[in-house]
Design the sequence.
């Protein structure tokens, strides 16, 4: 199976590390022979139809910041042109996310579909904005689109609901879908510190981004919630339909008061047939949704299986690559039969 | 897809209820046309190659206790003979479990494989004792065996680890796999009551069985743990290899002491490459494994995705049937491609 990797930041590097680590295992256990034939970043691409040397690619990126510096096979070329011209089975789309336009990731996906390539993506932007259009185009061209990594990092949320709980109707989903805000609230609660102090510390530790707006405003959670609403519950919504309130106004005093009453305050995304909202909510202390630190969690209320809760790591290079790998394996299994 | 239902107790009835409820949905959403051509219990069977009336079957069973009383198509016939002689795609094996011999369920499974029928089972006995033999025979005959419902009821544990986390190596599994003992411990802790008082109450409520030995001794958890060890971690063990301690010696005082130190005491099944044990363990109060009431939980420690935890309902007719239905749908999807 030939892979084009689009995007060579933290997640892209994680994907290469994981493929490198698992190459033999995948061949032996699943009969899957993975070969990365192109790697793209904003500098250009390295392209080799015989398969690139992944360790070398990681080394070149580390040293020069540019995959175009890859010896012999590196070149200055646009990503769309790579997707169009390089024969491959799957495009792994992990370019930077834009939750306002979905671009350029959306164009990469559509170009992949047009040229009959399956897509595995970790990109929230296009899916939170143009879910129906994008899945429609994939279907039209008879190719598979999978996107487990776009919500919850390593935590299997989308595939769990769609496949492992197949046959159930999911009536609602509630979850903590952003690790940064969960880390901040947990720390504020535990150490009785105010929001700005903890945010600053989280930024210094690299847990929160320099521009934390998307996390703390709830926008990141809203993007993920829109994806869950569309993919699992069959709703037709975008991030712009989500009723939104962030965590910036939460005080250590309110966390303490809630605690004394047997509750934690968490930034919860919730979708039902009628509701689509992200806001701070009280969660009973002994409830499975009350997870600590930067963990993510999703709870499905279903018609047959009652409530099912899944908890896991919401971010990280190798962790997110784990979700991407399971999507690749699922495509491989689908095609084998 | 033609189904033979073997076993018409609580779970068997749940399966028919769910098939009846979801018939149209399965056809519309998945293109799956399910028809139950035989239902067996210890009295005999109802057999109709055109498909049985499920509501009528449930009514007859309710009123007479015997499926053989089904009008026109009911008959006195052995289960093995039904499996052998009735053409069908899938045998749903939900006959009473025997964790000492695995019989007669094991013979039902093997007969199904020999006659080229796929099997979906909720039966712990055969799988906790003869995992390698049974999966080997299924493979030899080119048919599929699935058994999500054998561990954790509605909670997707086996399929989650094997499919949704595909590509990961599961390094250890820890879990609460028995709802009855979790209910008892939760109640003892909360209300500071002793073991026998809570057990008696649980029996009156129908949460614990009249003979609670398998639950409170940890044997039921051990059977499930052996299945997880074999199916997810590739170990070759049986229930007899599990180091075992039950919950009968736990006192409300020990639960209170643990609580004051920030812990709960839970009956934990744990498997690693070296360990295979069921015993009461301390779990930090704010840990995702600390689930209350009769909930089940499993935590996978993996090489890529870190820790993934899944929580759900461990018992119930419709809940267990949910896991069976997802297995049927997965077989249907596999065969379609």
Sequence:
């Amino acid at each position: 199976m030939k892979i084009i990797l689009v995007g060579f930041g933290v997640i892209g590097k994680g994907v290469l590390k994981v493929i490198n680590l698992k190459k033999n295992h995948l061949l032996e256990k699943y009969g899957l022979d993975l070969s990365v034939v192109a790697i793209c970043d904003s500098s250009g691409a390295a392209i080799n139809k015989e398969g690139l040397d992944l360790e070398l690619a990681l080394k070149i990126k580390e040293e020069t910041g540019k995959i175009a510096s890859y010896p012999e096979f590196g070149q200055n070329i646009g990503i769309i042109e790579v997707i169009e011209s390089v024969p491959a089975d799957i495009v792994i789309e992990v370019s930077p996310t834009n939750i306002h336009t979905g671009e350029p990731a959306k164009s990469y996906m559509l170009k992949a579909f047009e040229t009959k390539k399956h897509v595995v993506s970790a990109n929230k932007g296009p899916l939170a904005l143009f879910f129906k259009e994008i899945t429609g185009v994939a279907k039209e061209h008879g190719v598979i689109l999978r996107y487990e990594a776009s919500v919850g990092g390593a935590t299997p949320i989308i595939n769990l609901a769609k496949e492992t709980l197949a046959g159930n109707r999911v009536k609602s989903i509630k979850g903590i879908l952003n690790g940064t805000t969960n880390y901040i609230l947990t720390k504020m609660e535990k150490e009785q510190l105010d929001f700005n102090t903890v945010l600053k510390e989280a930024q210094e530790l690299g847990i929160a981004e320099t521009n934390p707006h998307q996390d703390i405003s709830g926008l990141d959670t809203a993007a993920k919630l829109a994806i869950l609403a569309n993919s699992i519950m069959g709703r037709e919504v975008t991030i712009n339909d989500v009723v939104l309130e962030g965590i910036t106004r939460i005080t250590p005093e309110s966390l303490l008061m809630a605690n004394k009453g047997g509750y934690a305050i968490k930034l919860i995304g919730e979708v039902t047939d009628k509701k689509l909202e992200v806001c701070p909510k009280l969660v009973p202390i002994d409830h499975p949704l009350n997870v600590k630190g930067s963990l993510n969690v999703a709870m499905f209320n279903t018609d047959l299986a009652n409530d099912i809760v899944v908890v896991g790591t919401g971010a990280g290079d190798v962790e997110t690559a784990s979700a991407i790998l399971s999507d690749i394996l699922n495509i491989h299994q689908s095609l084998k039969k």
Observations:
- Chain A has 13 helices and 13 strands.
- The two ends of chain A are 15 Å apart (CA to CA).
- The first strand of chain A starts at residue 2 and ends at 6.
